[in-house]
Write a structure and sequence with these properties.
single chain, Rossmann fold, 12 strands, six-stranded mixed beta sheet, 448 residues, MutS, DNA mismatch repair protein, Chain A, domain 3, 2 domains, four-stranded mixed beta sheet, DNA_mismatch_repair_MutS_sf, DNA_mismatch_repair_MutS_C, alpha/beta, ATP-dependent DNA damage sensor activity, 17 helices, 13% strand
Length: 448
């Protein structure tokens, strides 16, 4: 079973979209092959729920982070290899000969370029195969998780038929008979082996690209634990696309499975919640996360409600959209699914009294499922005081605001407790909005 989420969550966290500025996919999109792109997108679409598989994948990335490597060719060079090996060929030697002679004849008679292009395609492919063979030889086969893959690749490169192709002197152009021979071997006799090599290139493309991102951004690799351990510990958590971000520690378990977050506007609540959601998602992919250290029990899925909007087409108000969102999550929680749930300011689309009552009732009801982890923020701090009296499984935290005269300063440091910080009117006054509205109109003069 794969880790599940939905479009709202992916949009809230800005996960998908390799051409979308500041998306998490964009951040990791350092691959150079089309197959690498497809593999990377597949990993983003299907996070894992098996801790062994997660740890296996992250350990491979970790190996390439510790020992930097890069594919020994450019994207443009690889396209030549992929186009040549992927071109439709025949398993019949006679047809291979006929095709090559036909190209040669057209070159002589009509100065057609097909023969030269085909010839250079074979030569370029041979050069790149040699480079990839040498790249594989630099990787130690005693690396446990890569051992089987590396041994299989080295066995392919040791095949006598492939050796005949790779151990030939470099040339700008191959004679016709050699071109026929090498084409038949590469695209016909060794077709399956070439497919395995190309697939491995795609994989190593992703390995090296993800590792480079982790190394450049100083990300860490999370340790996945069995679901029954029921823990989520993240030290030094920060948002991966925010420069000079402040790190915070998040600790949740069965005894304290709800993090209740308060703080003034602009104190950093939404960014912290997005940081946690992104870390949970990437950790289930086996990818590096923006933190100093992380361990987590695998969950079934992740839901967020951060940037909810109305739906004019369906006639939904903002409040009703929030209600439907909560209902969706409640349905899965009631179905005994182990989730990570992140709610930013529940029911802000309704009046204060209804928001108070609904936030209190829904938060308390959700918290009874100890196998789910909840992160819930609100400006209605009175709800927190009631929950502190009623519930023993909450961790109450806030992001503080320090007033320097009339100017607020935000530490972005998570602090234990519930804050009563409310500085909205201070900010409004600092911007001079009330002064603008209270300016007396100039006296009218006759004729104006």
């Amino acid at each position: 079973m794969s880790f599940f989420t939905d479009k709202q969550t992916l949009d809230d966290l800005n996960i998908t979209g390799r051409y979308k500025n500041n998306s998490i996919t964009f951040l990791f999109d350092q691959v150079i092959t089309t197959g690498g792109i497809r593999l990377l997108e597949h990993m983003f679409r299907q996070p894992l729920t098996d801790p062994a598989e997660i740890n296996k994948r992250s350990d491979i990335f970790k190996r390439f982070t510790a020992y930097p490597s890069a594919l020994p060719f450019s994207a443009e060079e690889f396209v030549v290899l992929e186009d040549y090996l992927g071109a439709r060929g025949s398993l019949n030697r006679a047809e291979v000969i006929k095709n090559a002679i036909s190209k040669k004849a057209l070159q002589v008679v009509a100065q057609d370029e097909a023969y030269s292009l085909f010839n250079s395609g074979i030569i370029s492919t041979i050069k790149l195969l040699i480079r990839f063979r040498d790249f594989i030889d630099t990787l130690e086969t005693d690396e446990g998780l890569l051992r089987e893959q590396l041994i299989a690749l080295k066995d392919i490169f040791r095949l006598q038929k492939l050796q005949k192709v790779l151990n030939v002197p470099a040339a700008k152009e191959l004679p016709l008979f050699k071109m026929i021979k090498y084409d038949y071997l590469l695209r016909c006799v060794l077709k399956k082996e070439m497919e395995k090599i190309i697939e491995s290139i795609f994989q190593f493309d992703v390995y090296t690209a993800v590792a480079a991102v982790a190394r450049d951004h100083h990300f860490c690799y999370a340790t996945a634990l069995p679901k029954a351990r029921n823990v989520l510990n993240i030290q030094g958590l920060y948002h991966p696309t925010v420069e000079k971000a402040v790190g915070n520690t998040i600790t949740l378990n069965q005894e304290n499975n709800v993090l209740f977050l308060t703080g003034a506007n602009m104190a950093g609540k939404s960014t912290l919640m997005k940081s946690m959601g992104i870390a949970v998602y990437l950790a289930h992919m086996g990818f590096p996360v923006a933190a100093e250290a992380m361990e987590f029990s695998v969950r079934d899925g992740l839901y967020t409600s951060i940037n909810m909007s109305d739906n004019i087409g369906l006639g939904y108000s903002h409040f009703y959209a929030e209600v439907l969102r909560v209902k969706k999550v409640a349905t899965d929680v009631a179905a005994d699914k182990d989730l990570v749930v992140i709610f930013d300011e529940l029911f802000k689309g309704t009046n204060v009294k209804d928001a108070y009552d609904a936030t209190l009732a829904i938060t308390e009801a959700f918290s009874e499922n100890r196998n789910c982890f909840f992160m819930i923020s609100t400006h209605i701090t009175e709800v927190g005081e009631i929950l502190r009296e009623r519930c023993n499984n909450f961790r109450f935290t806030y992001l503080p605001t320090i007033m320097q005269g009339l100017r607020p300063r935000y530490t972005y440091r998570l602090t234990e407790g519930i804050t009563m910080d409310r500085h909205g009117m201070t900010i409004i006054r600092n911007e001079g909005i009330l002064d603008l509205l209270q300016v007396e109109a100039a006296p009218r003069t006759p004729g104006n």
